[in-house]
User: Fold Rrf2 family transcriptional regulator from Algoriphagus oliviformis.
Amino acid sequence: MLSKRAKYAIKTILFLQDHPELVPVSAKLIAERERIPYKFLENILRDLKTHQLVKSIRGAEGGYTLAKDPAEISIAQIMRVVDGPIALIPCISERFYEACAECEDEETCRIRHLFAEVRSEMVPILERPITTLAVKKEG
Assistant:
């Protein structure tokens, strides 16, 4: 399941992409428009900034903006920044692999094979640039 943190991070990146006329945007405005608890959003923005997906601009007219071209940002990147691995079970993660304690043989584990197939179909979709998302912009 997609965590609220990941969902809010995705909403934040999409908001910044969809509203270049407002950039730089205050965290308060993002929180209000996207219905994200402000304190929660501040922590998410800190993570996004640390991983160079957004940048902050100080001052009275400051706020947040994307740190790179939206064509270079994917949902998978955002999810990994806020939640870590995308894999549904740790033994199929390519970047955060962990053996399952109860597994006797990964090669014959039917659950591992099933979720490896799910991952192989899901990750390429999540790796697409956010600019390719069919998202209806609000009026």
Strands lie at 54-57, 63-66. Residues 110-126 form the longest helix (17 residues). Residues 28 and 38 are 6 Å apart (CA to CA).
